[in-house]
Design goal:
alpha+beta; Alpha-Beta Plaits; 2 domains; eight-stranded mixed sheet; 24% strand; globular
């Protein structure tokens, strides 16, 4: 097994991946063959969701770290049951951001709309600093899924960029792969910017309740 910096050993899928990456890094390695083995072991089709909260850094600066922690707690309490209801798998939480995967892009989009509606309903009647202003990015395609530890791939990178950097409050931004998979069940507005890992990006239309 491969040791980590703290002396622990990586296990299971994570250990196997890094064994193969180590093999790949050796002089004269058959990189194409190793790459095929990695994709055969870990390559799967998933929809990927990244969420973020709009204006969160400004709120922390204005209202302090305890406000930050309270909003994160309320977000988890509000949104994670919706994720579970739509068969999403939470991979990680980093500060105010979630990374979630879904087997089907339709479920990912349905969950996105339900999450946005829940945040909009929650925020009604509350002071602005207590609003949960959700931003969502979605990708879909072949990725490397390393158990429940992490996921890697072009659509992962694109969804991350859309959800964490590009989406504004209430928005659901998607890659071309998601738009194609959903077809004419949803209306999409083409966006003028590009993100690495996506052929094109769109804003999905849905009924905003705020």
């Amino acid at each position: 097994m491969i040791p980590t910096a703290d002396g622990e050993e990586l296990k299971g899928s994570v250990n196997r991946l890094w064994q193969l990456i180590e093999e790949r890094s050796q002089p004269g390695a058959d990189r194409e063959g190793i790459d095929r083995r990695i994709w055969d072991l870990f390559g799967e089709d998933w929809a990927i969701m990244f969420t973020d909260l709009s204006g969160f850094s400004r709120q922390v600066a204005a209202f302090g770290i305890l406000h930050f922690l309270e909003v994160i707690w309320e977000q988890k309490k509000l949104l994670l049951p919706i994720v579970a209801k739509h068969d999403g798998i939470l991979i990680k939480i980093e500060a105010d951001s979630f990374m979630i995967i879904f087997r089907k892009p339709e479920r990912a989009f349905e969950c996105s709309v339900a999450m946005q509606h829940a945040c909009q309903e929650w925020s009604k009647g509350k002071p602005p600093e207590e609003h949960i202003l959700l931003c969502i990015g979605l990708g879909y395609g072949r990725i490397l899924r390393i158990g429940d530890a992490d996921v890697y791939g072009a659509e992962v990178n694109a969804a991350s960029k859309l959800g964490e950097d590009r989406a504004k409050s209430h928005e659901i931004l998607v890659t071309a792969s998601v738009a194609k998979a959903l077809g004419d069940t949803t209306t999409f507005e083409p966006l003028s910017f590009d993100v690495p890992g996506a052929d094109a990006v769109y804003k999905a239309a849905y009924d905003v309740r705020a």
